[in-house]
């Protein structure tokens, strides 16, 4: 009989839950309920947060909706609604592309940039704590195994 506690699936899910709880508890101590809002009714969705993160890490180049669709593996209709909600929520604004006026570039607002900077700093702190006590060799092995598992699932 399979011992589920000795399976990759169980252990990755368990670890993911532990990390999620750790992040949630740490973030609440540092910045309240959400760094994107002061009231729970103003919170943004996880997808909006991930999109802000995508735009933040691609600030060095022009990003259009098609880039977002491809980079985040979302449909055209999902991306379209997402962009509209994020504009409405004051997280992004659009500008005409210098290459093609029919296309709009997606830009983070100053508020979203500042927030993403804070989140990035928190993420770096979390990563340091998660890696604490793990040798560079063991960490390299961990990533190699994770990559192999990812490859096995294709």
Automatic annotation (TrEMBL):
Give the UniProt keywords, A-Z.
DNA-binding, Transcription, Transcription regulation
Domain HTH marR-type: residue ranges = 5-151
Spell out the Gene3D superfamilies in the cross-references.
Winged helix-like DNA-binding domain superfamily/Winged helix DNA-binding domain
What is this protein's name?
HTH marR-type domain-containing protein
InterPro entries found in the cross-reference section: HTH_MarR-typ, WH-like_DNA-bd_sf, WH_DNA-bd_sf
Q: MF terms per GO, please?
A: DNA binding; DNA-binding transcription factor activity
Keyword Magnesium present in the record's keywords: the answer is: no
SUPFAM superfamilies reported for this sequence = Winged helix' DNA-binding domain
């Amino acid at each position: 009989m399979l011992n589920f506690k000795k399976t990759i699936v169980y252990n990755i899910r368990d670890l993911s839950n532990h990390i999620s709880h750790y992040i949630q508890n740490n973030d609440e101590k540092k910045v309240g309920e959400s760094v994107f809002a002061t009231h729970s009714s103003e919170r943004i969705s996880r997808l909006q947060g991930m999109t802000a993160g995508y735009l933040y890490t691609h600030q060095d180049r022009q990003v259009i909706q098609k880039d977002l669709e491809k980079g985040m593996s979302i449909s055209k209709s999902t991306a379209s609604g997402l962009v509209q909600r994020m504009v409405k929520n004051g997280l992004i604004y659009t500008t005409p592309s210098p290459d093609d006026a029919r296309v709009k570039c997606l830009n983070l607002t100053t508020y979203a940039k500042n927030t993403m900077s804070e989140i990035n700093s928190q993420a770096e702190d979390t990563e340091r704590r998660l890696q604490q006590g793990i040798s560079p060799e063991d960490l390299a092995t961990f990533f190699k195994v994770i990559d192999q598992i990812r490859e096995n699932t294709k």
